[in-house]
């Protein structure tokens, strides 16, 4: 009698495991579809600013060049960062990932802060650039890039430390991960 009940429980556990695995696969597929739709909605395409001229010796690879943000107006820069915040917020919502730093708005201005610090006033950093907050803005962007690196890690994407500042490349690598949503 005891063996029959045990066999029944083993069978029930096996059936439950099969259903859970199927649900997990469907959920992961749905998450991938949602993230792909976000990337098309924002016209999010991979790319690097490339210098047309010199090639690396012996490698025949174009040299990537850093973009000088001082050539763009603060409004353009802040709008682009706003889009990154928006897309990142949607992606983490769809994937169900809790980031180490959280975004919030005070009025129309976006900020980022640690999710664990109690003194929220002192830990918030602006994610907008104005004439007097360059140092705090730089820290805020580092926090944003850390969040993107963390998101990549949760999705099985390895971002080398020296590439963490490449905000859009990190986000795109995450969105193209084969393990996205798993």
UniProtKB/TrEMBL annotation:
It holds the Pfam family ATG14. Keywords: Coiled coil. It comes from the Eukaryota. Belongs to the ATG14 family. This is Autophagy-related protein 14. It comes from Phycomyces blakesleeanus.
